[in-house]
Write a structure and sequence with these properties.
It is globular and about 70 Å long. A hairpin with a 7-residue loop joins strand 1 and strand 2. Helices cover 5% and strands 51% of the residues. Strands 2-5-6-7-8-9-10-12-13-14-15-18-19-20-21-22 form a 16-stranded antiparallel β-barrel. It is mainly beta. The protein is built from 2 helices and 22 strands.
Length: 437
């Protein structure tokens, strides 16, 4: 057995032993209080998402060596194991291990995809107004709410991934090496980070803007949020997708991200021109019960203005069910042009049905719809993607749930006038089982 796999098994075993030791105490089984009043604690968590998926594939996609139009696959979309807590009155830590996107494209099997470090931070709390920390983290991930998402509480099947792809220096799982500050100033919540980006090692220098392979400069990001109703917790950087009617939240947020000379392209005289990456984001989030029976609404809308230089585009495909060379405009598999220089709009709406009056029927349904519109410089017409689906919470609250989702996306080809023109629309259907605590 490989050493990496042995380490992964050891970590899982230690986490589970701690959890089992906590069972039977008069508190949540995944929390160990270090002080009787709960002010110092260690909390454990787990999330596993398994997909069964059917995808209509973009032109030119291959499964193995064969070019095909459609495929089925089984995916471990996410696996998370985490521990966090207050070790003293002021010192907080967060450690998260995980893996993403294990499917048949990993021909060597999951044994060669061991658990990776996703979060590893230390944080000092001066007061509720100022927490300062550093490490491998998503505190500086982007400009809008789902740049850092709580995967276990998503409204839609998956978070709007374009908000994480917007960060061209984003790494595995959308974490980066950063120092950051966060806190509450009255009803304002802020997060600001300085990130040491990872260097891109794929050289696609051409007439259109791409990510530079030169040593990256520091990246600066921040989000300022105003809470009209209940405040949201800032224990970790990950925003909830829905509260299932347990809170009344109405937030407006404004974010920014910039990195000097992050992009480059060739000028007509074959010299290299550099562009700063500049992204602005604005979003609104609303989640509230609307009846005494537990009906609730979750709504979200966002806007991003992105400047990556001339005609920059990026495909969003997570996880990829097929392969292809880098000449595929939409990306291989089920990818779509979701990020680039221009404006991006996104919205989602969900409705949680009331709790059953029967003691034996605890499950609850939550249908939803979502759409993304990317009006990008390189596209002849805006790219549109829409989704419709539903969640079924087996216990009526967070934890085990099933989700069914249909996504329909625009597909583009290169036109004679130099811009990409929509040529087709294709779909993907996913059934998900999620187990978490």
């Amino acid at each position: 057995m490989k050493k990496s796999m042995q380490k992964s098994i050891l970590v899982v075993t230690l986490v589970m032993l701690n959890i089992f030791c906590a069972i039977g105490q008069e508190k949540p089984f995944n929390v160990i209080n270090l002080k009787p009043d709960g002010s110092q604690y260690i909390k454990f968590g787990m999330n596993l998402q398994v997909w069964g998926r059917y995808s209509e594939l973009n032109p030119g996609s291959k499964v193995g060596t064969n070019e095909v139009d459609e495929t089925y696959d089984i995916v471990i979309r996410r696996l998370r194991l985490q521990a966090m807590g207050m070790l003293t009155e002021n010192v907080f830590f967060h450690l998260q291990l995980g893996q993403n996107n294990i499917n048949f494209q990993q021909n060597s099997g999951p044994s060669n995809a061991p658990l990776s470090i996703m979060d590893a931070i230390g944080e000092y709390h001066f007061s509720d107004k100022l927490h300062i920390g550093g490490g491998l983290t998503a505190w500086g991930a982007g400009t809008t709410r789902y740049s850092a998402n709580s995967s276990a509480t998503q409204l839609t099947l998956d978070t709007p991934m374009y908000q994480q792809f917007i960060n061209t220096s984003s790494t595995f799982g959308n974490r980066n090496l950063s120092i950051y500050a966060t806190g509450y100033l009255g009803k304002f919540n802020y997060r600001a980070a300085i990130t040491n980006p990872y260097r891109n090692n794929v050289n696609n220098l051409g007439v259109n803007s791409t990510l530079s392979t030169e040593t990256p400069r520091a990246q600066y990001s921040g989000i300022l949020t105003y809470s009209f109703l209940d405040k949201e917790a800032i224990e970790d950087p990950y925003h909830r997708g829905t509260y299932l009617g347990t809170k009344k939240v109405f937030n407006l947020a404004l974010g920014y991200m910039t990195q000097a000379k992050a992009m480059w392209h060739l000028k007509p005289d074959a010299t290299v021109a550099y562009n700063d990456m500049k992204v602005l984001g604005f979003d609104v989030f609303y989640d509230s019960p609307i009846s005494d029976k537990g009906d609730a609404i979750t709504a979200y809308a966002s806007y991003n203005n992105n400047d990556y230089g001339k005609n920059y585009i990026q495909s969003v495909s997570t996880p990829n069910p097929a392969v292809g060379d880098n000449t595929l405009i939409n990306g291989s598999g089920a990818g779509f042009i979701g990020v680039g220089t221009g404006n991006i709009y996104y919205a989602q709406l969900g409705y949680l049905f009331a709790k059953s009056s029967s003691e034996t029927k605890k499950g609850r349904f939550q249908p939803y719809v979502a759409t993304q519109i990317a009006a990008l410089e390189a596209l002849d017409t805006p790219m549109t993607m829409y989704e419709i689906g539903a969640n079924y919470y087996t216990t009526g609250t967070f934890g085990p749930k099933f989700s069914l989702n249909y996504q329909n996306r625009a597909v583009y080809d290169k036109s004679l006038v130099g811009k990409y023109t929509q040529s087709d629309r294709l779909g993907t259907v996913v059934l998900q089982c999620q187990v978490s605590f």
